Amino acid sequence: MARMKFLCDADRCIECNACVTACKNEHEVPWGINRRRVVTINDGRPGERSVSMACMHCTDAPCASVCPVNCFYTTADAVVLHSKDLCIGCGYCFYACPFGAPQYPRVGNFGSRGKMDKCTYCAGGPEADSTQAEFVKYGTNRLAEGKLPLCAEMCSTKSLLAGDGEIIAQIYRERVVKRGYGSGAWGWRTAYRETIAT
Amino acid sequence: MMAFLTRIRIAVGALALLAIFAALAPAAAQQPTQVNPTAQAVNEAQLFKQLGQIDGRCTLPDQKACLLEQPGGRDWRQFSEVTLPWIGAISILGMLGVLVLFYLIRGMVRIESGRSGRTIVRFSAFERFVHWMTAVCFIVLAISGLNITFGNKLLLPWMGPEAFTAWSQWAKYAHNYLSFPFTLGVVTICLMWIAWNFPSKADVEWLKAGGGIIGKEHPPARRFNGGQKLIYWIVVLGGGAVAITGYLLMFPFWGTGIAGMQTAQIVHGIVSVLFVAAMLGHIYIGSIGMEGAFEAMGTGTVDENWAKQHHSLWLEEQKAKGKVADAPPSGRMQPAE
Amino acid sequence: MLIKRTERQARRGALAQTLSSQSDAGLDRRSFLRRSGLAAGGLAALGTLSLGSVRKAEARMPAKAGAAVTIRKNICTHCSVGCTVMAEVSEGVWIGQEPGWDSPINRGSHCAKGAAVRELVHGDRRLKYPMKLVNGQWTKISWDTAIDEIGTKMLAIREKSGPDSVYFLGSAKFSNEGAYLYRKFAAYWGTNNVDHQARICHSTTVAGVANTWGYGAQTNSYNDIRNSKTMIIMGGNPAEAHPVSLQHLLEGKELNRANYIVIEPRLTRTAAHATEFVRIRSGTDIPVIYGILWHIFRNGWEDKQFIEQRVYGMEDARREIEKWTPEEVERVSGVPGAQLERVAKMFATEKPSTLIWCMGATQHTVGTANVRAFCIALLATGNVGSFGNGANIFRGHCNVQGATDLGLDIGTLPLYYGLVEGAWRHWGRVWETDYEWLSSRFHTRDVGGKPVKMMEVAGIPSTRWFDATMMPQKQVQQQDNLKAMMVFGHGGNTVTRMPEAAKGIAALDLLVVADPHPTTWAVLGERKDNTYLLPICTQFECDGSRTASNRSIQWGEQVVKPIFESKNDYEVMYRLATKLGFADRMFKNIKVNGNEPVAEDILREINRGGWSTGYCGQSPERLKAHMRNQDKFDLVTLRAPKDAPAEIAGDYYGLPWPCWGTPELRHPGTHTLYNTNLHVMEGGGTFRARFGVEREEKAPDGTMRKVSLLSNGSFSVGSEIRDGYPEFTYGVLKKLGWDGDLTAAERATIERIGGNNPDSVGWAIDLSGGIQRVTMAHGCIHYGNGKARANAWNLPDPIPVHREPIYTPRPELVARYPTLPNAVQFRVPNIGFDVQKAAVDKGLAKQFPLINTSGRLVEYEGGGEETRSNKWLAELQQDMFIEINPADAAARGIKDGAFVLVTGPEMPAGQACRMKALVTERVGRGVTWSPYHFGGWFMNVDQRRKYPAGADPIVLGESINTVTTYGYDPVTGMQEPKATLCQIRAA
């Protein structure tokens, strides 16, 4: 069984934002919501690194744990998804998420912030695969078509890796061995409670 | 003297500024000759050690998006999932247990000398309105709030996800909207009754005597006894705290960041469950716990003997002012105070 | 990234299985759904009230059940990398993009722009129908009315002021066919005032490189950089400008543990991954390169054999280099000698080394000289003409290489045929249009009693059009001032000195903007009428080929029909030509469907005339075969193996030009130029013998001597002539006795062209391709085997010398390193010397102490109208900003993210540009940087209301070119936006 993960090789990421617009394009994500974003650490100084970040589909996901209405579920591929039909837009998952992944259509929480939206690992939602109903709420379901998330597939420098955790960790390890440096698998310790030993 | 100090301050500031420029000038004039950005790459573990979280720069105008990682979310999750339910369960169930036990042992506190038939105005219609508005809001807020923490454990299994979501959604609306009248009520209560609620020596005596409901002696009290003052301050301070933290959560990122909101939620959660526990005591004593107490907030009038028993000093004051009627006053009568 | 391409099928099965099987790992989707449904009804009914907001799908939705989804391949319309775009189309709607895994250029990757191109076609901010200004109001008109009115006005201007008064500004976004057609259109109209973005992009590169070794293009390819052991990126930020190229750079860096050296005034996203970062002062590229070469020669690291065999004039260069001691280099550029020595050693000894440059090098008054200095560095270290080395010049727009090749240039005809009679006659033969008629279309000017045929005089550069509009008529060396601008796909905010340009726009008699968007042209000047906007579709709504930076030509197929009322470039040109009365002549050999010329036919005409640059072998059929078989080409060599399908076997991907001979000859194209390690029929070559056979020069002892310009003992693999040789003509073939290899038909064609003197028919005008075929059959290259020139004697500075920018922050250096004297160039005066002198005299460097330099953002491109109208991109960059160092910001009380006012030395008094400050250490002290993609604000005034309703870009902002200043390269008219001055204050 695949255990899907994301890995951003910061030594490859050039903050080109392809992952961001690919996501927008694939899922018609509206203005103001960024399921994926790129953050640059130490901007402008030697050693600056950019990291593309979205929902990491954590092991024992904090969002799922704190959700008052239990709207999250984890697929057999370990993708953390949620049901917009069940979400009440309370914002708890946002407080708990270490990566700032959950987003809401509205800024205020007065009344409702709207249904939470986040990266689906291009795996849709609880509706039947690749249906209009699923698309409208969650975007396309690439995983069901045997494809991986488009952000990673379109990454300009093959920095963002998606796929089974074991395999992408192996790819990363080989890269580090080959090139002799690597600033680590960003977010892995927080998300998966493990790092990639190189 | 002042002028001298100011001058010194300016001088020190100027020196500091000079030092900054001095430090910068050579950097600009000659750059380090070994610049290897690859070898100098930032390291996640190191950043965590230094800062606890990682943020950087991003092009989105929403600067919140620049926060890359905040493992603090994990701590908050621990609170939300473990700590708060435990605090809530212990305080609320504990309070209920104490009350049940107390009722079994002590029973209802009776008016010892029986009803006199003469009544005295205790709370005006306005006071009662404010009280009940706040109380009703509080009950809805409490239930809808507890639903957030306990609902998915207690209600969800038998309601099913969709019904529970619908209920929770409405509960959330109620929680958000009723916060406004509740806050208004708390503020009004605060202003309306603050004059009688400054602690006094009598309160110490009153508390020492266990409020008269534990022992036999009824310590003298003015309009509000020590226990009521306690409730007053719990409402004012607790209500204020939940209101402020609640609004911080309702308007995300207004004056706080994600860490601030986590803190706000922690305060909101803890204060709320303690508040609920305290209010259970208040409800008990105002209803089945004490004969004649409910009337005070119900009709606004109390029996003179009840007043004598629980608020002897107040009764005397009222008598001195000539406010004690011989016959039961009509509900429409407006007290002067 | 997909783990392995071959795993896709397997994974699909596995995944489907996973989903259908009950798993014990937590809650799976099905049981989750089932559980959700358990308590449906009851309270759940309340949930039907609209509680939350679930966003609605817009254009995009999964294809309807049963509707077929087709994949169409096109090429990204943004930068020059040439990424394949895979468009999923259902029922005429572009519903999605998939990674183009098979393309060896991008292997599925995109940048922000490429991943968002679908929105260009769905964008509701597009210009929807033809419009014109009626008393200051945009009014909808029909295409027929538009073409008729425009044509009538053009003819009136021609009548009054002559053909040179109409300026044809074309586009690097044209397809090759569109670019070619536009150049042809200008020729049939009768002017050389035809230009495009290459002017402000790599015109200096083309001039510098072509003057060094023959052709003005990237010598190698993005993919080939994977072979480099040392790469220097100087004056470029490909991480933002060519993001997918970084895939090749970074993988190359990793695989070879290569040295990745970035030489820049700014710590860019590219520099963040460098192994060595050298911060220089803007505009001191020559001192830095000479500083490197100083160490190379001092330590004997130069490639002596290469210089001896293949380089002319290195001794002359060396004399100049010796002046640049480490002390002087540091004084001028700020770079310490020790660092440059380290760079020099890596570059010269850890080979192959490549030099990569972009507009940081080219956009200077010394742009051509910078490029020439880079070439000298490559020649001195023997780093040209092989794998992993070379001048890897990253071009800007998607087809700026092709548009340059196809003659959207004031100084050339298509494929670099000069403006001389022979070249005009060549194209006349290709077009089957009488030379006399063509020449009658042009004005002949009387200069002191001597007739000057404007047909043979280079036109006005796009950087100077407004000067030519507003200058006194006498100073403009043509019949009259410019009166009309025909702008096809070119932003108005990418040219410097915008306050002047705004006045120029106001002064025009006619302004026509043909573009998918209104562009800043539509809003910049104060115009009330005689202004037309024509909606042109994007290249995704059009068939055609485009040439990537590495000279690979890729065929893009129409993804969807043009949206709204937009039309493609070909059709608009055809309609206009019809109105102007030369459509029959111009489209004589091009099939026209209705009003739409057929792209394939245009390309065939290019093939028939494109001998000089090897655009003759890339027939539409071959290009389409390449697109069909993308997966067969190797990632590093770009070559299809011999056992690939016959239609592509042995070809280099995209038949990178030169692809010699007729398509039937099956030349594979040329992956790396001047590569003597390969047979010419395998893509090999030599330096072009373009500058003659020998040259008389003065020896150090004062005597004159003749020096050969032909290569000395170096030749390409399999050459039957084992030394240098000149260009081939029919006469040369005869002398060698190779003419017997010509077929009768070839010989007949040559003799027809040659008339009385068939021996003089050269390889470039032989329409049969016979000379090329026979020469290559003997292992030789028809353009000759010459030496590259370190000394390009025909340029203003034959050996590049450092010259301070016009507005320099170091006025004390001007006395020693002044700019070139004033001169008349390209029909207009260039008074750079006076401007520089005045700036020094007035002490402007004190009033404007900050260096103002500019560049690209990854989200936007060019003038930015198109990308700023794309909601997915616009969201990522919502404000114009200027980067400023924390020390400079602190001294001015400027906070990060706050608004500032920026002024330049040439801005009108009291005016300023308002933008946000980005306080960062990316820029050093005394340096500012800003992106040049913004427009729609002009000197603190929002111009949104001036756009046609609904066609305004989402994001508007000040253009940095409102602040930029005078300064033009003498060789090409290139502007100087990379090294000028400004001042900033808090707003």
Describe the secondary structure blueprint for this structure.
The complex is a heterotrimer of chains A (198), B (337) and C (987).
Chain A: E1 4-8, H1 18-27, E2 36-41, E3 49-54, H2 62-66, E4 72-74, E5 80-82, H3 92-96, H4 132-138, H5 150-153, E6 160-164, H6 165-179, H7 188-192
Antiparallel strand pairs in A: 1-6, 2-3, 4-5
Chain B: H1 2-29, H2 44-51, E1 54-55, E2 67-69, H3 72-106, E3 119-121, H4 125-154, H5 156-159, H6 161-193, H7 201-208, H8 226-250, H9 258-286, H10 293-298, E4 301-303, H11 304-310, H12 312-320
Antiparallel strand pairs in B: 1-2, 3-4
Chain C: H1 7-20, H2 29-37, E1 70-75, E2 84-90, E3 93-98, H3 118-122, E4 131-134, E5 137-140, H4 143-161, E6 166-169, H5 176-189, E7 194-195, H6 203-213, E8 230-234, H7 238-241, H8 245-256, E9 259-264, E10 276-279, H9 285-298, H10 304-310, E11 311-312, H11 314-321, H12 326-333, H13 337-349, E12 353-357, H14 359-362, H15 367-380, E13 390-393, H16 400-405, H17 421-431, H18 435-441, E14 444-447, E15 450-453, H19 465-470, E16 484-488, H20 498-507, E17 510-515, H21 521-524, E18 531-535, E19 544-547, E20 553-556, H22 569-580, H23 583-586, E21 592-593, E22 596-597, H24 599-609, H25 620-628, E23 694-698, E24 704-708, H26 730-736, H27 744-754, H28 770-777, E25 788-789, E26 823-825, E27 828-830, H29 832-841, H30 844-847, E28 850-855, H31 865-868, H32 871-874, E29 881-884, H33 886-892, E30 899-903, E31 913-919, E32 927-931, E33 936-938, E34 941-942, E35 957-958, E36 980-986
Parallel strand pairs in C: 6-7, 6-16, 8-9, 8-12, 9-10, 11-25, 12-13, 16-17, 17-18, 28-32, 29-31, 33-35
Antiparallel strand pairs in C: 1-2, 2-3, 4-5, 4-18, 14-15, 19-20, 21-22, 23-24, 26-27, 28-36, 29-32, 30-31, 30-36, 33-34
Helix pairs in contact in C: 4-22, 5-22, 5-24, 6-15, 9-12, 9-13, 9-15
